[in-house]
Each structure stands twice: as C-alpha cells, then as structure tokens.
Amino acid sequence: MDQFPYTANMNFIEEQYQRWLANPQSVSLDWQRFLQGFALGATGCEPGAGSTSLFYKVEQLMFHFRNFGHWMGKTNPLDVASPQAKFDLAAFELTEAHLDQKFYASFAQQELALKDMIAWLQQTYCGTIGVEYLHIQDIQEREWLQAQMETSRNQPNLAAEEKKRILQKLYEAWRFEHFLHSNYIGQKRFSLEGAETMLVMLDIALDELAKQGCEEVVLGMAHRGRLNVLVNTFWKLYEDIFCEFDDNYDPKTVVGSSDVRYHKGYLATMKTRYNKEIRLMLSANPSHLEAVNPVVEGLVRARQFALNDQSRSLVVPMLIHGDAAFAGQGIVPETLNLSQLNGYRTGGTIHIIINNQIGFTTLPQDSRSTKYPTDIAKMLMIPIFHVNTEDPEAAWYITRLATDYRMKFHKDVVIDLVCFRRFGHNESDEPFFTQPQMYNLI
Questions:
Q1: Are 329 and 289 in contact (CB under 8 A)?
Q2: What number of other Cβ atoms are within 10 A of residue 341's Cβ?
Q3: Which residues contact 363 (CB under 8 A, 6 or more apart)?
Q4: How far apart are CA 406 and CA 411, in angstroms?
Q5: Within 10 Å of residue 150's Cβ, how many Cβ atoms?
Q6: 43 partner at 20 to 30 Å CA-CA among 26, 174, 192, 273?
C-alpha cells in the first residue's frame, strides 16, 4: 500500500476513501481491495446506498471519543460548569434513528447497537479519567493501550481489600496534615491537602514495580506533599519530622540546623503488599522546583550501571511535578529531550503532576499557551493520563496501567492528577486575597 492505514492518518484515509467513492479506479489497486473489503466486512454488502459511508461515519465517531474524550470528561474536581466539549450525533451526520442499528465493535468483539457503543466509549474516555494517546506513532503501543482501556472501559474493578487500602492511605495523608495544621499554626509545610490521592498513586506504583521485579526507586519531588510522603511512604518517624518544626539551633553549623525540612532527602526500604522489598531514595531538592529532574535520572543511570541492569527494570525513576513548573521551567523539556538518548536513557520515568490549577497566584491561562501543563511531554510520543483527584479508585487504576506501560515499553509516562491547594501556596498566605473565586469553589 502507499501508506499503512491507521487512526493517526485519518486525513489521508479520508482522501483515499472519497476518491474511491467517486471513482474506484482513481486509487491504487491495494487501496481498491482494502476499501472494498472494508465495506464488505462492515456491512455484508457491496458499496451502495450509503452503506459504506454510514460505517465510516461510525468509525469517525469512535475516533472522536478516542481523540477528544478527555475534553468531555469530568477530570476537574472544581469544574461545576458543563463539559467544554459536547457530543453531537449530527456532527457525524448520524441521527437518533441510527442508535438501534448494530455495528461491529472491536473492543467488545461483537456487534453492538450504536447507542451501546457510544455508552461504552463514554465510560472509557469521558469519565474521571481522560487519556491522550493517539499522537503516539508506534502502532504496537497505541493498540496495547487501546485494548487495555477499552476492554475494561477504564473502570477500576477493585477487591474489598484494595478499597480498604486506598481508604487507609487517604486517612494517613489527612491525619498527618490535620495534626500539623492544628499544632504548628502558620508554619510552612506545603500541605498535600487537596491532592491526598497522590499517596494512593505512589502506593500502587511501588507495589506494581516491585511485583514486576524492580528493586530500587529513586524519587524526585518539589515541596508540596514532601513531608507527607516522607512519613507515609518512606516511613520516616513522626518525631523526626516534628522536631524539624521546633527551633533547633546548632552553633557548630553555618546555617543553624541544616536545610529546611521540605528540601531534605531520605533513604528507606519498603515491604510491599506482595511481600517484596523495594529500596526507596528521595533525592534532596532545592527551591528551584524542577532542578532535581536530571539529578534523579543521573542517580538512576548510575545505579543501573552498578547493578548491571541492562533491561533498565531493576531501578526506576519517578518524578513528581507541579503543574506550573512542568509547563514553565526549561529544565523539564531539556530532561525529557535527553530521555531516549543512548547515553542518558534510564528505561522510562513515571511522572506524576500535582495539578494545582494555579502557579503560586497565576492562573493557567496567564502562565502557558497550551490547554494542559502536560502538552510539552507529547514530543516523546508517550501516553498522558488526566485523572480527577476526587476519584482515588480511578487514580489507583490509571497508575497501575501507567506503571505497566513503563515496564513493558521502557518509556516515560505522565499522569496529570487534577486537584487543588486547599490552603493556598503555603500556610502563611491567604489565598482569598488573590484567588477568591477559586477558593469559594474549594
């Protein structure tokens, strides 16, 4: 064939199809056979009376859900308005009369009424999980993701014990922040409140990585939620954290008591639910929010070399970003751009973006030119998942899928946790002064 037909080439297929409808001899013999077989397989009859055209319209409808479903979903916990994009049958030259007509649905491996196909795809792509993956040029990756998501409809099917685990991690996150908020009033802690689901995501990611043979994880993150991660993921002692909130002047050091508490790193060994041990390292991080990114990649590369980890599966990097920093700081695309080079490759990084929907006091429309903070990552041809923080079960499910993708294809993957900051940038400011409308919603 002139070019292999797949969804990323819809314009090219459309052109061939329209030429074939007007005059079958105007396209190559390969395309004649393909389009004739396409019509025959779809409807059981030769082209005519608009049968092929109708099936093609249904194909366009399915492509629409896969490509734009994230615009119609419920990924934003603060979005009380109607979805930004609405589904309209008329846009595909379909009517309600077609809703009961049956078409073959590959994701169900059977014929479904059009209305059931729409419901299936809405569940998959227009819920609290939004997905961007059709920009990926590798057909194997794209088909694998599509099969994983559409067969499960992107709906978590959790056992009771898994639900209890999720609830436990949420409670641990809330309890720690509530204690600090009540006992260390006015002190900066960069609370995780509004994004507690991140602890759930870390929990399942580490479990799945250990299950698939990973022995070490190097984590880099900025300030927000760092203290919570230290005590509830790395199991740093509560008393050690609390001591850092008290005055602890050391006259033998230049800066008194070393760095501030939300810059420090840590080492730990964690036992997962599968009774496997995994070594964890939280890299120290300065105030430059994304400076830790290449540091983490370098640490992972060095550990992979030391362990002779040729598959790049024994040591895995994870990075937790802020939305404004991911979109705005140049070190992010620089690090992403190096990620697939032979001299720098680490086998893929799991990125989690804590999407506060604000950068300090700057709204997204005033800080970036793109719809999502994640758009810069599309240059790597990797999947991007958006998930509503108010649906921790969906976040659990999509983190497991993202982890599986990283371990299977050894490429980066991005999860955009759409959330909010309950108490502003830090606990010393008053967010109602700068963002009263947002904080009325919160």
A1: yes
A2: 8
A3: 357, 435
A4: 5
A5: 21
A6: 26
